[in-house]
Design brief:
This protein is mainly α and 191 residues long. It is built from seven helices and no strands. The two termini are 33 Å apart.
């Protein structure tokens, strides 16, 4: 149960701190353009639902036997995955700087970023967030929560990445297509 409390503390820390990672007014603006395709709304809903599902872990674990691990030390691996995800997300946002926005939009003078983690991965920030959510679901030590949170996170971030890549191809054309050819979406050699 302590691993789930730690998971909540990590999530609260990150989402409280995230606004400080945004450079400039445009990056903080919540107005979504057409390219967003409601992905920001879907992300917000999944965030809220996943928090409630994780919160239910405190009750579910008292009344069900859906534990992922028999040894109660292993759920702390979920916390470790969360911390690695947090570092990945912060690193990605610090690399993008003013181009890291709440919604999908292209800013004036924007270019394809292909250094730092972006030299290898097109969406390291989303990888970091997926790791945070999957880590939290592992920290819950509950199969039902793990499956639900992992699936909803993967589905919503897949949709977001698809929408973002369409926007970037539209904006940067051949430059982004070439970038796609030499990078991985999330995980080198896998995806």
């Amino acid at each position: 149960m302590i691993s789930l409390i730690i998971a909540f503390l990590i999530i609260i820390f990150f989402y409280s701190f995230e606004s400080f990672l945004r450079y400039g007014d445009e990056a903080k603006n919540r107005e979504a353009g057409q390219a967003d395709k409601k992905s920001t709304i879907y992300l917000s809903r999944v965030f809220s639902i996943n928090l409630l599902v994780l919160l239910s872990g405190f009750l579910l674990n008292q009344f069900t036997k859906l534990e992922i691990f028999d040894n109660h030390i292993y759920p702390y691996l979920g916390n470790l995955i969360m911390i690695i995800g947090l570092i990945t997300r912060i690193t990605a946002t610090r690399t993008l700087k003013q181009y890291y926005t709440r919604t999908l939009k292209i800013q004036s003078n924007q270019k394809v970023i292909d250094f730092g983690l972006y030299k290898y991965l097109r969406h390291p920030g989303y990888l970091g967030l997926i790791m945070i959510w999957i880590g939290a679901s592992i920290a819950s030590n509950n199969w039902l929560i793990f499956v639900f949170v992992a699936l909803t996170s993967i589905i919503v971030y897949h949709y977001r990445m698809e929408s973002e890549e369409q926007m970037l191809i539209s904006a940067f054309g051949e430059s982004y297509i070439n970038y796609k050819k030499r990078t991985w979406r999330l995980v080198p050699w896998l995806y």
